[in-house]
Amino acid sequence: MENRYASHPREVKAFDTARLREEFLIEEMFKPDQLTLTYTHVDRFIVGGALPVNGTVKLEADAKAIGAATFLERREIGIINVGGAGSVTVDGEVYALASKDCLYIGLGAKEVIFASEDAAQPAKFYMNSTPAHKTYPTVKAAISEASPNHLGSLTNSNERTIYRYIHTGGIQSCQLVMGMTLLKDGSMWNTMPSHTHNRRSEVYFYFDMPEDGVVFHMMGEPQETRHLAVRNEQSVISPSWSIHSGVGTASYTFIWGMAGENQIFEDMDPVAMKDIK
């Protein structure tokens, strides 16, 4: 499991492109028949991917790395399938996940196993995990069961629908909030106008992008912005002090996960367009 450490915004001002990518971009989420995990000290997120092709993949991490005998001994996890049909088996109970279905697993589950229905079109399980203090039930939600919120306009190139899976009005959790944003045809901007939320950090995962597509993810303090060039199926760690907006060269979808002091989706500090530098 790779480790990432928290960075002070004053230091980030001096980072070059390579250092920005090293600290904030997770470039490879999926490896065939493997589990990939990145542990960030920003709100103790673990960001991961599982790509079962020729067999199953088990959710596990080195006991020393997470300080626990099992992955979910002191954690909860949200999983969204971004590939072909598959399943997640939680302590013997099987949950079938089609593309864009979500599964929440609460603290205390001992065995989690990922599988694909068809090796030619394998499932891709993207996951966010955060520390937990109590157990909530394991719950599956299809995208049709998520709470939609329509925002933006085609005039501003940011017409989009936000689907909330794990949130105060949906699947219950200790601190994890998770959902997906689908942009309308012709819209390329996300999360613009920008905002920060000093009480929560966030992780973005960009996917459904063409091979030559790029999302320019804007980050940094509102008056000291930087950018990351993000390709298909890559993740960005966004500290609480950073904006997290982006614009693509072609259509894309992204999954967002948040953790921190509260779970109130609307708790954010807007940044006026005139203040962006």
Automatic annotation (TrEMBL):
Pathway, per UniProt? Glycan metabolism; pectin degradation; 2-dehydro-3-deoxy-D-gluconate from pectin: step 4/5
Q: Name what cofactor the protein needs.
A: Zn(2+)
Keyword list, A-Z: Isomerase, Metal-binding, Zinc
At the top level of its lineage, which domain of life is listed?
A: Bacteria
Note whether Ion transport occurs among the keywords.
Answer: no
Binding residues for Zn(2+), per the UniProt record?
A: H195, H197, E202, H244
For the biological process aspect of GO, one term held by this record is: D-glucuronate catabolic process
SUPFAM superfamilies membership: RmlC-like cupins
> Which note does the record give on the cofactor?
Binds 1 zinc ion per subunit.
Report the EC code(s) recorded for this entry: 5.3.1.17
A Pfam family annotated for this UniProt entry: KduI
Catalysis performed (reactions): 5-dehydro-4-deoxy-D-glucuronate = 3-deoxy-D-glycero-2,5-hexodiulosonate
List, alphabetically, the InterPro entries matched.
Answer: KduI (IPR007045), KduI/IolB_isomerase (IPR021120), KduI_N (IPR027449), RmlC-like_jellyroll (IPR014710), RmlC_Cupin_sf (IPR011051)
Recorded GO terms, molecular function?
4-deoxy-L-threo-5-hexosulose-uronate ketol-isomerase activity; zinc ion binding
Tell me which family the UniProt entry assigns to this protein. Belongs to the KduI family.
Q: What does this protein do?
A: Catalyzes the isomerization of 5-dehydro-4-deoxy-D-glucuronate to 3-deoxy-D-glycero-2,5-hexodiulosonate.
What the entry lists under HAMAP family is as follows: KduI
Protein name, UniProt field = 4-deoxy-L-threo-5-hexosulose-uronate ketol-isomerase
